[in-house]
Every structure is written in C-alpha cells, then in structure tokens.
Amino acid sequence: MSGSGPGGTAGMDESVAHNARVWNYWLGGKDYYAVDRAVGDHVTSVYPAIREVARADRAFLGRAVRYLAGEAGVRQFLDIGTGLPTADNTHEIAQRVAPESRIVYVDNDPLVLTHARALLTSSPEGATDYLHADVRDPDAILRAAAETLDFTRPVAIMMLGVLNFVPDTGRARSAVRRLLDAVPSGSHLAVTHPTLELGGEANAEAMRFWNENATPPITARTRDEVARFFGGTELLEPGIVSCALWRPDPGTGAPAEVAQFGAVGRKP
Ligand SMILES: C[S@@+](CC[C@H](N)C(=O)[O-])C[C@H]1O[C@@H](n2cnc3c(N)ncnc32)[C@H](O)[C@@H]1O
C-alpha cells in the first residue's frame, strides 16, 4: 500500500503507529499507514542506525534458521512476534533446506493477522500455521501450536525483536521458561533484543520518543538480562553478540555492529 493504507483492514487503528507496521516501513515494505511513516521517519532522524538494525535482524533470522534447519537438523519452528510477511520468512528459509519443516507463526498485531495468508504457503511436504496470540500467554500458544507441531520432537523457538515488547522482565522470563519447559532436548531458542549497551544515547532518545508516540512500548535490556532468557540452554558460539556479528556469512566482509543482541541456545 506504500503508506496509503493496507486494503481490506477494517477496524485497523490508523491513528497510532504500530511496531509491526513501522518495522515493515524500515525494512522497505509496503504495509504501513501515514502515522507509521511519520513516527518511523522521526526515529530515523534521531537514530539513523535503526534501519540497519532492522536489516541486520532479518539477516540474523536467515542465518539462524539456515543453521537450525541445516546443521542442527531441526524440523519444527515456533516463530513468536513474526512481523508482517516480507522476503524470506521463516518457513521459506527452513523449507529451502528441509521441505518437510513445520512452522507456526504467532503475532498479536491485527494487521499481521490480515496478511497471514502470505505465511501459509507451505511446501506440500511441510506445514505452516498462524496464531493470533500474545507472547505473554505461552500456554495458549502451546495449546494451539500443538495442532501443527509435535512437542515430543525438537522445536526451534524464535523470539526475534519481541521480548522487548514485554516491559516486565520477570514476565518475559517466565514466558520463555514456560516455552522451553514444553520442548524436548535438542530444541533451540533464538532471540534478538535491542540494547542500550550498544545503542547509546541516540538509541535511548529514539526509544523515549517511541514510547510517547507509538505502540507497544519498547524496553531495552542488558547483556546479562538477555543471558538470563537462555537459562537452561547451552549458548552456541559466539554467544550473545550484536546480531550482525552472529556467524556472519563467509565472504561478506566485516559486518558493522548494530545495537541488537542476537543469540541461539540449545536445550541439552
Ligand atoms: C520488531 S518486530 C520483529 C518481527 C520479526 N520477528 C523480525 O525479527 O523481523 C516485533 C513483532 O512482535 C510483535 N509483538 C509485539 N508485542 C507482541 C506480543 N505481546 N505478543 C505477540 N507479538 C507481539 C509485533 O506485532 C511485531 O510484529
């Protein structure tokens, strides 16, 4: 819709910028309203690196899913905080490696729900499903995801850029814990999370502006706080780093650090 409003989205809130839509704007997508572009542009003027953060986060998704479906042999993915469909969604990356991969997407944004059809284009050998649900309600997610995923076999829990929208750290941690408790040995947790330890004052100012003008409110976390999400897992090399520096593709040159941690842990 190129900022003129997505078609067929009656009841959508066009008066307040929403994260899923602004993220889509920063990624060069078409699914955002004028208010999303205005807030997105202001954030970019305060903190120009934000577009690089969004791109590096998506690139991390690609590398992490390729590793998980490839070397780690995982065939099931629970992608919470999916975002609006874009190029190379989780199922497309995973099913390129292993067509039988099964993927359940979860988001609580109404616009993502209206675009979910684009996420349901599974290979014939695999499966995809979409749940309109809140990360703060892991039991509801697990119940509904069990229709597509077999929780006796390893699952990769993808939580990219979403725990930062759960302001209560204890609640975020217990949601992750509940999900990890529900999956067997050999399952993985992948997280990206913004941090002021890498972002500095301009990033802090952009987040303050976001929290006064957009929804849902965002919370940055320290490396130690992000590390605690991985309790009970073994962090894969190189640990918790800027997501741009997590196993960069060979031959792509030295990547520039962005203010978003990325890490993958394995449940032993
Ligand atoms: C920054 S985007 C990240 C999208 C995608 N995971 C990526 O890395 O490109 C965060 C997504 O989380 C979703 N989200 C925010 N709060 C949520 C919640 N409480 N429950 C489920 N999804 C949520 C937003 O709607 C948005 O689509």
Automatic annotation (TrEMBL):
Per UniProt, the keywords (alphabetical) are: Methyltransferase, Transferase
Q: Pfam families under this entry?
A: Methyltransf_19 (PF04672)
GO biological process entries: methylation
**GO molecular function term, any single one:** methyltransferase activity
Q: Which domain of life is it from?
A: Bacteria
Q: Which InterPro entries match?
A: SAM-dependent_MTases_sf, SAM_dep_MeTrfase_SAV2177_type
Q: What is this protein called?
A: SAM-dependent methyltransferase
UniProt source species: Streptomyces glaucosporus
